[in-house]
């Protein structure tokens, strides 16, 4: 499970990344601070299933389970990156493992089209929304188009399935047969012979593939600047927009790390834990004001919603003892798996181990103690024991 942070230079991607991973990465107010992608681990939050028992699992905090996901912070992209502008399109390749993208937009309008700092309010965040879709589509188009005339003749001559050929050509961009199948229907191209596809047809296909294989959520960042100056300009008919202040989240996490405050990521308030010096007091008062006006910094909400809404994932807990909800060594709810909604007991068995999947007998719902068949669809929060003949 990997989320990618993408957007124009200087929009706050690395600040967002640092605030969720606490990795020591470079942040600066000029474009192209990040050149090599940063990889890290962030945590999404979900209510822990142990809360319905008398005893706690010890893995969650105040009933909130933190489930790890991978997150990548890539170099900034400028319009026409696919033609080599800015740092070019090599960096688009860093997004290939991402199943979903958080598009970080500078909603304070304090960066120009190339990401150079300008006066707050003088940029155009509205224009930043669409360009990323287009760059990703054109990146995919260029990959698909490589040797296409030869490949399309081969598809025809050898009767290769078109969705397989498209997925194969784009596998480096993380595109699967299911994505290709969806996009070929969506763009009405199953009915047109691949040797006859025009450039426009292929771009249209890539647009559908992008939507399906790299869904996006928008972080309207820097809401702390001039009372959320440009947030209303960040609009989209089809994408969720979440106002964020990555800088405020980073300040809160840093203060919590040094023990000055107690803060739960995503919360609308924090508790002061020590005596504050005047500078700390001033800084924290400003952040408190932001939390009061916006509810939270938005950063945790962004990653939670990217995983649960955009990617439609659920969390399930494998156990070996369905009575105690523990593993062999007595740890309660030792693991929390993120799985696609619609996954079955058999999918979960494979997730534990290939052998367990291959030798699956049945599953047990640890709540009801009912036996479940291999095709039974898992629900969010399920606690499941898998029974198999694997050694
Ligand atoms: N006020 C404010 N400033 C922010 C926020 N997030 C980031 N910044 C500032 O914006 C500038 C750019 O931040 P980075 O995180 O380096 O931006 P980036 O998108 O990674 O930039 P590149 O690596 O160059 O593409 C820095 O000066 C940050 O301190 C925010 O939420 N509020
Ligand atoms: Mg950066």
Automatic annotation (TrEMBL):
Pfam families attached to this UniProt entry: MMR_HSR1, TGS, YGR210-like_G4
Any GO molecular function: GTP binding
Keyword set, alphabetical order: Nucleotide-binding
InterPro entries, per database record: Beta-grasp_dom_sf (IPR012675), G_OBG (IPR031167), GTP-bd (IPR006073), P-loop_NTPase (IPR027417), TGS (IPR004095), TGS-like (IPR012676), YGR210-like_G4 (IPR013646)
One cellular component (GO) term of this entry: cytoplasm
Domain OBG-type G: 1-264
Transmembrane segments: none
Zinc in keyword set: no
Family note: Belongs to the RelA/SpoT family.
Protein name, UniProt field: GTP-binding uncharacterized protein TIGR00650
Organism: Methanimicrococcus blatticola
């Amino acid at each position: 499970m990997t989320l990618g942070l993408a957007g124009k230079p200087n929009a706050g991607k690395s600040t967002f990344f640092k605030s969720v991973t606490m990795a020591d990465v470079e942040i600066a107010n000029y474009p192209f601070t990040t050149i090599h992608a940063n990889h890290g681990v962030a945590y999404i939050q979900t209510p822990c299933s142990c809360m319905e028992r008398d005893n706690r699992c010890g893995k969650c905090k105040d009933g909130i389970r933190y489930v790890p996901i991978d997150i990548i912070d890539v170099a900034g992209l400028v319009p026409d990156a696919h033609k080599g502008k800015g740092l070019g399109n090599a960096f688009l390749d860093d997004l290939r493992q991402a199943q979903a993208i958080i598009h970080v937009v500078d909603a304070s309008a304090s960066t120009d089209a190339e990401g150079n700092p300008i006066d707050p309010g003088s940029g155009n965040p509205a224009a930043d929304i669409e360009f990323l879709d287009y760059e990703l589509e054109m990146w995919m188009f260029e990959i698909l188009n490589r040797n296409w005339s030869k490949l399309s003749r081969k598809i025809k001559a050898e009767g290769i399935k078109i969705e397989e050929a498209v997925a194969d050509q784009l596998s480096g961009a993380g595109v699967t047969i299911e994505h290709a199948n969806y996009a070929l229907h969506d763009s009405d191209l199953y009915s047109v012979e691949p040797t006859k596809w025009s450039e426009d047809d292929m771009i249209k296909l890539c647009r559908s593939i992008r939507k399906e294989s790299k869904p996006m959520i928008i972080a309207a960042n820097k809401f702390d600047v001039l009372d959320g100056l440009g947030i209303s300009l960040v609009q989209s008919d089809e994408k969720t927009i979440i106002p964020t202040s990555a800088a405020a989240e980073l300040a809160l996490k840093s203060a919590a790390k040094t023990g000055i405050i107690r803060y739960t990521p995503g919360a609308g308030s924090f508790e002061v834990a020590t005596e504050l010096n005047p500078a700390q007091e001033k800084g924290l008062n400003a952040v408190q004001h932001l939390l009061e006006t916006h509810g939270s910094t938005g950063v945790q909400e962004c990653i939670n919603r990217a995983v649960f809404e955009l990617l439609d994932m659920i969390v399930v807990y494998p156990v070996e003892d369905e009575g105690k909800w523990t593993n062999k060594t007595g740890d309660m709810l030792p693991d929390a798996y993120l799985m696609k909604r619609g996954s079955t007991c058999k999918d979960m068995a494979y997730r534990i181990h290939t052998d367990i999947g291959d030798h699956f007998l049945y599953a047990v719902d640890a709540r009801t103690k009912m036996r479940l068949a291999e095709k039974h669809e898992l629900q969010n929060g399920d606690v499941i024991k898998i029974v198999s003949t694997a050694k």
